[in-house]
Amino acid sequence: MATSTTKIRCVRCAKEKSTVQCDGCLQSFCLNHFNDHQQQLNLQFDQVQNNRDRFRQTLNEYSNNSHEHDQLVKQIDQWEKDSIEKIRQTAEETRNTLRKYTNQSLSKIEIKLNQLTKELQESQKENGFMEKDFQRWNQQLDEMNEEINKPSNIQITNSSTPLINKINVDLFRESWVIPNINVSATWIQNGITIAGGNGQGNELNQLSSPYSIYIDNNETMYIADGGNHRIVEWKIGTKESRVVAGGNGRGNRNDQLNGPTNVIVDEESDSLIISDTENRRIMRWSRRDGKSGEIIVYNVTAYGIVMDNERYLYTSDWGGHEVRRWKIGDRNGILVAGGNGKGNRFDQLDGPRGIFIDQDDSLYVVDQGNHRVMKWVKDAEEGIVVAGGHGQGNSLSQLYYPWGVVVDQLGTVYVADQINHRVMRWCLGAKEGSIVVGRNGYGPRSNQLYYPLNLSFDRDNSLYVVDCNNYRIQKFNKVD
Questions:
Q1: Is 211 helix (H, G, I), strand (E, B) or coil?
Q2: In contact, 441 and 435? CB cutoff 8 Å
Q3: Do residues 348 and 383 make contact, with C-beta atoms less than 8 angstroms apart?
Q4: Cα separation, 21 vs 461, whole angstroms
Q5: Strand (E) positions, 10-90?
Q6: What is the pLDDT of residues 9-55, one digit of tens each?
Q7: CA distances from 171 to 174, 259, 392, 443 (A)
Q8: Using alpha carbons only, how large is the chain's radius of gyration in Å?
Q9: What's this model's pTM, rounded to 2 decimal places?
Q10: Which of 51, 206, 196 is nearest to 135 (CA)?
């Protein structure tokens, strides 16, 4: 603990004498009372150590019994009981998957705990701790304890089959699991720049024509930095990114990208799925040793990609005016929207951009040329308009070359209204939308956007916007 010595009044005995100032609480103590203060700090430090040890025991217990995660396993057991012999094999497969994901979650917590342990050891060795450190350390332990008791990214879901309802263990994917957001929620209109914002360029603190953002379960951002032909990983709160795909110049080699416009994370394979738009291909890039990628879909100019609960990949083909579903590894996708030529009928699309799949496998498509967002229920032959659809314009019932879309579990549609430089919200069944952010025209100020292309939400319902021509990612906090 850093200190300084001078003659001022001791905060304990109120006598003016040689004192030592604590850099943590910024109070001055005489030497006798400073020793008492130091002992109190040591006791608090020991308490943190004890809390850490107790949590270590809890973590070990969960690690040894990870398959007994109360509510999740009860769902599996009940499903197994109801389906009796026909589903016994599936039940065992599902338990194994749950163990895998739970162990992965516990391993991540183990890493965080080891980091905390190292920090505690270093602080104890250097005697470099103060009051605010105890609060931070205890908060970290509370967060880890909360995560181990209530995993936020695992759930059991049902899917229909001709014979039985097969269940799967799924990690929440930010691309389709959006929090329920109150329809009256509002956001602070001044955004915070959390990536880029340092002008157009190719330095690690810069972006050039960013197109999309993906926030994974650890709240790490992946940005399709199209103008720099790369995908960058940006930890929230840091000032620089790390190149995780591309970055080797514009080209069509497997270690290059050409104007990528979309990126998502496939948690199961621990890889990035990238729409390498100008090369008309979809790439898969390992997050572990991603020196180059592999082509998994050929001949598609996709400005939107999304993965559903069963790991089927959807691509919006801008030139083909259609959306297809792909099983990774297949060469031929299945048409799920459009495909009837360019047009404005309900069974047609015109230059589709962003897409979104909800938990009912309903597909939302930004039908950009028609200035609308369409919803295609699973297996439907035509879509329904859920936003826009009244020609280009800036009224509350119109959109103007929209780009990205997300939908919460209440069916509320949020869309990046590109040329109007705003983000719009369309409640279920509404005839017109409302402006979420971007009420002040285009520009570089914190309350302005300049061609917003995509958007996302985090668990706190904070809104993230890809502010393309300002070369930045803006975060808008929800009003409490």
A1: strand
A2: no
A3: no
A4: 42
A5: 16-22, 28-30
A6: 888 888 887 888 887 777 888 888 888 888 888 888 988 999 888 88
A7: 9, 29, 38, 38
A8: 26
A9: 0.67
A10: 51
